[in-house]
Amino acid sequence: MIEQLLNGEQNMKAAVFFPGIGYHCDKPLLYYSRKLAQECGYEETIALSYTYDGGNIRGNEEKMQQAFESLYEQAEKSLSAIDFDKYDEILFVAKSVGTIIASAYAEKHSIRCRQILYTPLKYTYNFAHREAIAFIGTSDPWSIVSEVQAFSQKQQVPMYTYENANHSLETTDTLENLKILQDVMGKTKGFLEQK
Predict the structure, then answer these.
(1) Residue 6 CA to chain centroid, in angstroms?
(2) DSSP assignment, residue 164?
(3) Which of 117, 158, 166, 195 is the most exposed place for a label (fewest CB within 10 A)?
């Protein structure tokens, strides 16, 4: 790092965190992945925050579209001052509906980024993913899990699946949840350290 600075070759890295509805950036998956990103040299970490009060959207295509449009607009405003061109490496970390927003934003703005997709939805795969990994639970009520797995496989996005885990990658067993979280973060760190 010192040698890079002396030679004027500082590698600028930024990570943006896209939460889900009700799953903000202080919840386990996004909190610990943000810590890992900082450990791996992402000196700029941007944790987005947005709100949606349109009620339950699960299983309602129209409400899902409305929620996406509202949250996407909020994300656009939050990121409008960021000059992504100045970064050598960009990472998008997203949860649930945030995976759709992150993927749509990257495509619209032609941002070459790596992506970590926690509990992506089928709509996430309406957008291409150049370099990404994904995580899902077999008891995720927001998805037909086999369908999301198939979309992920088609795009060659490695997907890690956790037995009996829900949309937060949690089960009814607290100690099991800690094991899952440790495994997810281990795989997250491995992805972050890949060159």
Answers:
(1) 34
(2) T
(3) 195
Cα–Cα distance, 129 to 114 (Å, whole number): 8
114-118 and 89-95: which strand pairing? parallel
Contact 167, 141 (CB under 8 A): yes
> CA-CA distances (angstroms) from residue 146 to 9, 53, 175?
44, 30, 26
Report residue 22 CA to chain centroid gap: 15
Q: Cα separation of 171 and 111, whole Å? A: 35
Q: Which residue has the tokens 């941002």?
A: 111
- The CA distance from 132 to 91, in Å, is 10
* Separate counts of helices (H) and strands (E) for the chain: 6, 6
